[in-house]
Amino acid sequence: MKQFFGQVASEGIGIGVVLNLSKNTSLAKENAENSLNNEFQMALYLRAKEIVNSRLSTLYNQTLDNLGQEMAKIVLFEQFLLEDDEFDGKIQQHIADGKTAQEAIKETQNSLYETFKTLKDSYLAERIAEIADLSTQLENSINGDYQMFNLSENTVIIATDVAVSQLLTFDKPKICGIVTTKGSLTTHTSIIAQTAGIPLLIQVDNDILNTENGTKIAIDTFSKSAIVQPTDYQVNTILQKIKETSEEKLNQERFRGCKTQTKDGFDIRLYANIGSVEDAKMAYNADTEGVGLLRSEFLFINRNDYPSEEEQYNTYWQIVQELHFKPLIIRTIDIGTDKNADYFNLPTETNPALGYRAIRICLDRPQLFENQLRAIYRAAQTAYKQKEHNPIAIMFPMIVACWEVEKCLQFCQNIENELNINFKVAKGIMIETPAAVLIANDLAKMVDFFSVGSNDLAQYILAIDRQCGNHLEKYVDFEHPALLKALKMTAQAAIENNIWCGICGELATYPNLTEFLIREGYTEFSVNYHKILKMREIINNITRFPA
Ligand code: PEP
Ligand code: MG
Asked: Could you tell me the residue ranges of all domains in the chain?
């Protein structure tokens, strides 16, 4: 028996068997065993090359349409490089000489790097970034093979970290726990684990990576620990806890179907955060009153190309139906940082959280933005035709300036004109940057609602990267006076301008602050749907204006 302690990123208890991603999956094992097998390594490389090549062809057309010829040339250069003797030829030569596919790519990249660095021609010297990008794409395609797992029931995943795209591809009902040595509380990996109800323990000692596949393991976030080869006594204690938790859940059922209302009679809207049609169904069954945040970017992850307008329309319309026409706030794509898709071809950045993401990308790529907005408006139109009621509102992420909102609203106006929209579609923004808080009074005059993205807001106000490891965790303080002041200022600006203000970051379920938020005037809480009934119980016990 060995017990490991960590931080709780998603609550829960589970008992299962280990799948250690850092050790050997069948393919990784096959690759390791075949590291000296030239034919295997060559086949691995050629397949990766084919995947990347087809991705680049699609990307070339998209870039030409959206960003023009100059940008498209960059893609063309990568395609050229992929067939060039100095790149492709050298990689194949290295593999033939006995290197693994990954080593061959790295070596070729490094030697080309050196050559290009000394070039007088500045155009060519600047192509170093494309060499790096192409190499990363090839390596990712090779690594992508390792993500294809056939999970057995009750799997507990052990890894250094699990990427968002990887977690999205797993058959989640089969996972009863995840234990990682890295990770952070408000990353999207943690958020997806919470949404899926999977216990996640992060920042556990590296020693856990030595655990063999198939070993019995228990994960219990109430004791913040994972127990490898638990004793019979420990197993029984954990089974007892599982029973108690389900009893507690049963007890919360008293709040199903009730109003969410403070003791002194103020209505609060209790909504759910979702990322898919499946989530919408689960959220409805969890008794949500609506959706306060559809992370629409999840529809763009784990694919090779953008979803078409038609595909998006179908998804949004399906979500409306799964929610039985309850309110649905669709956030336009917030791609970037830990939510990535290769085909977006985003630049590699030193500080991606401060970089090219969310609305910045949408405003730069009009076709992408218009397609999404048109799909949203069409779903709203279909709903309106059926029920004379539009449940959909639109929300823009990562706003820092009024001019961004002006542009977003102009995009909306154009689509409204184009589709002859004759009903109201509310538009709101996420308040998740310090800049937005400081100009909240101006922003409130432009939109119908605010929703605080406390995950990002906390990272920017406290200067703590959401992806940080345990060395920074002690600085994460959700009750920091600066954060409380920002929450207060945002609500005040909303109230003064007669718009409503909600919160959809993880802070919405942080129990120490529920009373504070309600008293400051937050009227909408959008939370993980597993917590709907629990939050209703908490809110219904709060007095907004104590005597
Ligand atoms: C947030 O930042 O709090 C938020 C809700 O958005 P996301 O977590 O998707 O960045
Ligand atoms: Mg955010």
From this structure: 2-20+148-250, 32-143, 256-539
Looking from the CA of residue 334, the nearest atom of ligand 1 is 9
Ligand nearest to the CA of 528: 1
Q: How far is the CA of 482 from the centre of ligand 2 (A)?
A: 18
Q: How far is CA 431 from the centre of its chain?
A: 17
pLDDT higher than 70, residue 224: yes
Asked if 216 and 229 count as a contact pair (C-beta separation under 8 A), the reply is yes
Residue 432: CB within 6 Å of ligand 1? Answer: yes
- Give tens-digit pLDDT for 155-202: 999 998 887 767 777 788 899 999 999 888 888 888 889 888 999 999
Let me know if domain 32-143 sits in CATH 2.40.30.70. Answer: no
- CATH class entry, domain 2-20+148-250: alpha beta
402 labelled catalytic: no
Report the pLDDT averaged over residues 363-385.
Answer: 98
Of all residues in the chain, the percent with pLDDT exceeding 90 is 63
Second-level CATH architecture of 256-539: Alpha-Beta Barrel (3.20)
Q: How many CB atoms lie within 10 A of CB 378?
A: 20
3-state secondary structure 97-149: CCCCHHHHHHHHHHHHHHHHHCCCCHHHHCCHHHHHHHHHHHHHHHHHHHHCC
Q: How far apart are CA 276 and CA 373, in angstroms?
A: 17
- The partner residues of 14 in beta bridges, in order of sequence, read 219
